[in-house]
Amino acid sequence: MTFDTQRRDLVAQAFSSCFGGLPSVWCRAPGRVDLMGSHTDYNLGAVLTLPIGRDTWIAARPNSSSEVRLHSLNLGADASFALDSNEKCPEHPWIDYIHGVAVVLQEAGLPLCGFDGVIHSTVPLRSGLSSSAALECAAATVFETLGAWSLDPVEKALLCQRAENHFVGVNCGILDQFTSCMGRQGCALLLDCHNLTSQPVTIAEGIGVVICDTKSQRQLAGSEYGERRAQCENGARLLGASALCELTHEAYISREHELPPIVAKRCRFIIEEHARVAALAAALSAGDHPAIAELTAASFHGASHLYEITSPAMHTMMAAMLAAPGVLGARQAGAGFGGCMVALVQVDQLDEFAAAVRSHYFAATAILPEIYPVSAAAGAGFL
Question: Is 176 a catalytic residue?
Answer without folding.
Answer: yes
